[in-house]
# Entry
Amino acid sequence: MQINILAGGPTELWPDNIFEEPGQWIGADRGTWYLYQHQVHMKLAVGDFDSLTLSEYQELQQHFVDTQVIHVKAEKDETDTELALMYARDMQPTHIKVFGATGGRLDHLLSNLWQMGDEKFTVIREKVTFIDKCNAVNYFGPGEHVLIKNDKTRYLGFMALANINDFHIKDAKYTLDLNTTQLMPKMWSSNEFIGEQVHFSLKQGIIMTVQTCDV
# Structure
């Protein structure tokens, strides 16, 4: 089952036809309000809802009929998007797509993208994709991997989220053979697809891939 999470980031960064995605929806904080506005049924709504006005939250409450609502305190250890991912993890998903998690505050952006390096997300790490109008972000652990080119994508970046070892990019425009250990986060950016697939591998660590385009 595919799980879709909508966070509260700028709506202008949503991809086209976002609400045609199959599967079940989770609203994270203001993402809940956006789902309600677009009449999209939610399996779950989670967050401190501090980005909603009192009247907005009261209106939402009247429509939470068969939606599970997890209302948490604002003073907490996890972000609202992180909580949504934790609940999605426990729903045994085949794929998790996260929308509305980019743009706006830079600390939110980095928190959203880098949290997949946390051990608690190991079981779903390679099932998660962060998506906006121009970017698709995925995560990979040790092994041999194939990245399929998205429509409208041209550029490709690889970022180490944890210490990596023996990292190879095989058939992109710029190949890479890193036979030593990379001990700090690093982005290999502005690579490009030359076909419909790029093969890469690593023996240790976590790689975040970013497919992107010029806006």
The mean pLDDT is 91.
